[in-house]
Amino acid sequence: MVVSSLKLQDLIEEIRGAKTQAQEREVIQKECAHIRASFRDGDPLHRHRQLAKLLYVHMLGYPAHFGQMECLKLIASPRFTDKRVGYLGAMLLLDERQDAHLLITNSIKNDLSQGIQAVQGLALCTLSTVGSAEMCRDLATEVEKLLLQPGSYVRKKAVLTAVHMIRKVPELSNIFLPPCAQLLHERHHGILLGTVTLITELCERSPAALKHFRKVVPQLVQILQTLVTTGYSVEHSISGVSDPFLQVQILRLLRILGRNHEESSEVMNDLLAQVATNTDTSRNAGNAVLFETVLTIMDIRSAAGLRVLAVNILGRFLLNNDKNIRYVALTSLLRMVQSDHSAVQRHRPTVVECLREPDASLSRRALELSLALVNSSNVRAMTQELQSFLESCLPDLRADCASGILLAAERFAPTKRWHIDTILRVLTTAGTHVRDDAVANLTQLIGGAQELHAYSVRRLYSALAEDISQQPLVQVAAWCIGEYGDLLLEGGCEETEPLQVEEEKVLALLEKVLQSHMSLPATRGYALTALMKLSTRLRGDNNRIRQVVSIYGSCVDVELQQRAVEYNTLFRKYDHMRAAILEKMPLVERGGTPDEEAKESKEAQLSEAALVPTEPQASKLLDLLDLLDGTFEAAQPPPALEPSPGGTLVHLLDLPCASPAPASIPDLRVFEREGLQLNLSFVRPPGTPALLLITVTAVNTSGADVTHFVCQAAVPKSFHLQLQAPSGDTVPAQGGLPVTQLLRILNPNKAPLRLKLRLTYNHFGQSVQEIFEVNNLPMETWQ
């Protein structure tokens, strides 16, 4: 018995009535068999019904690819009911990856020229959905003709199809330039919105179109002014705002047209002020218009008063109950803090309040903005607020907060004592989350402040007695006690409360650090060295210290064992030299400017790299096949360089080398964006003239850290390139410690050098990727 095929409504009811997935699959498989049989029989009257059922099956996630050719047959049918289902099937079952979609090009072309609006609308919808680059090129002239058709229904769909074509094939922009000027006179808001979107796409992809449409800025200003001043309209009003979608799109276009163009920006100023002051902010639609207004004011060359108004609008956003609006305001203020620092400073109390937000994304943005607002005049108050936030913030934010406080204190500290107190409080609160260089920086700071040695050692001893879990704090305290233990026992510091410290308590505290399971090997090394130094600073017997040191002579940790063995030898064989060897560390002078220090550090790294070539790790080799063409190759290790016997002997004996110093090569700045600068410095070792050492230095002068920083490079195939590991992946804000990376380039043919660089990083909450070629390297780098 032949079972008849179900109707669409009956099929839906039966599928929904299935109690298990197996029953559903059984119903669908049975019906798909009937649909296939119907397609094979070629029944033209019921083909569209069968395809409609197949589309419903496709929407449920079951395979329906066998209906693709039936879509083409229905599209070619003269009946509207067939075309409607055929075009719907084409939009659902076809895409650019399948060659079958090209077969409907002629059918779409014929339907566009028929003159029936409903059919033209179906064809335009399908073209804007599945139209490939080839289809767009073939049908661009037909769509251009429909842009000026009398019917608004077809024109609106033609404009949207033109937007899709420009995105697919930007070179078609010349075809759509002339109709756009006429479409701007439309009163139909749907057509006007599509036209503004089309002009925006054209301006973003074609400099010629951008120059062409700057002439229509007064017309766009007039359209937006009419929207702002028009009273309530039932058709276009949303929450009391007249067509906010059109207003937002016009503001985006004005932002593109006014960027870096004085004349266009001047025409917009009065209108932007009017929009900013007259828009209702009680509804979300008004807030959307205001936010686009602020972005436009920030991007164009607006007046100073207008920029202050934009900052004040963002300040009002910070008081909004909606978390999304507050997040948008914080992100926008973070972008403006460099150009309008004083205006943003007025909203500092509100920004600080946002630190207490329970939402992690909001508090992170507020933290970044708060750190960017710190300067010499408010560093005490802001640091106090940030330290309070550090005590209660989420663990994910502690590292960023601690690093930001340390950088701000280093840059704006009013006194050395305040600087030391600030770092100690950060180490006490979140010591495990601070940067790796925090210990070295604090020891250098304490060592350079002779008048604060007694104060520092007493503060650190008290902090260590209370908590030994914060490893950086323990390391600094152990170092300071070892250096200035005599001052700790004297008790002559007037700046702290009287504290009676006995020698036995100090030794017991250091032993506790050595025995603690929380102490890292490096921390135990600090404590062991501190005990050794105290052997020359304490008045009592050193037997206890000698016993502790001898215990660690058989420690599992090799580094700690080596120290203990050396210290034991010092006690046994060289006790007469112990006092001289364990004297206080000399003061570390920060000679010269930071630029000179960076240069000295760079030269030391380069000389070391030139003498001892290192093998790159496999994880550091760069895969730039997607970036470079055939004339370039990714970074590869250079062949091993054979040092001369004389040079090796000089290196081993640490004797001065008599070879002349290489000629200095000027540095080169190759990149600068939003405060991030990339500089190249060059050194050519005298012994290997074919080798060029390039140090890439990334400096960040903006108010926000640059994170996940990666620099990749490639050179032509005639060169050999090796990249050393970078010094870090975070470039601190406000001119902090730069990130450096060494490039070793072997140029045996002495050919002119070209370099391609790719930078990827996160800045101001956005992911950035920059690709550029450096072809203006100094001649001294390759000759």
Describe this structure in words.
- The protein is an alpha+beta fold and 783 residues long.
- Among the domains are: 435-582; 668-781, Gamma-adaptin ear (GAE) domain (Immunoglobulin-like, Sandwich), CATH 2.60.40.
- The protein is built from 34 helices and eleven strands.
- The strands form three sheets. Strands 4-5-6-9-8 form a five-stranded antiparallel sheet, covered by helices on one side.
- Helix 5 (80-93) packs parallel to helix 7 (117-130), helix 22 (379-392) packs parallel to helix 24 (416-430) and helix 28 runs antiparallel to helix 29 (521-537).
Approximate shape: elongated
Mean pLDDT: 83
Instruction: Report the helical percentage.
Output: 55-70%
Structural class estimated from helices and strands? alpha+beta
The biggest sheet amounts to: 5 strands, antiparallel
As a whole number of angstroms, the C-alpha radius of gyration is 36 Å
Note the beta-strand portion: 5-15%
Order of strands across the biggest sheet? 4-5-6-9-8
Number of strands: 11
Instruction: Give the uncertain stretches in residue-range form.
Output: 591-661
The first-to-last residue Cα distance is 91 Å
The helix tally amounts to: 34
InterPro entries: Adaptor_Complx_Large_Subunit, AP1_complex_gsu, ARM-like, ARM-type_fold, Clathrin/coatomer_adapt-like_N, Clathrin_a/b/g-adaptin_app_Ig, Clathrin_app_Ig-like_sf, GAE_dom
Subcellular location: Cytoplasmic vesicle membrane; Endomembrane system; Golgi apparatus
Domain GAE: 663-778
Membrane topology: Peripheral membrane protein
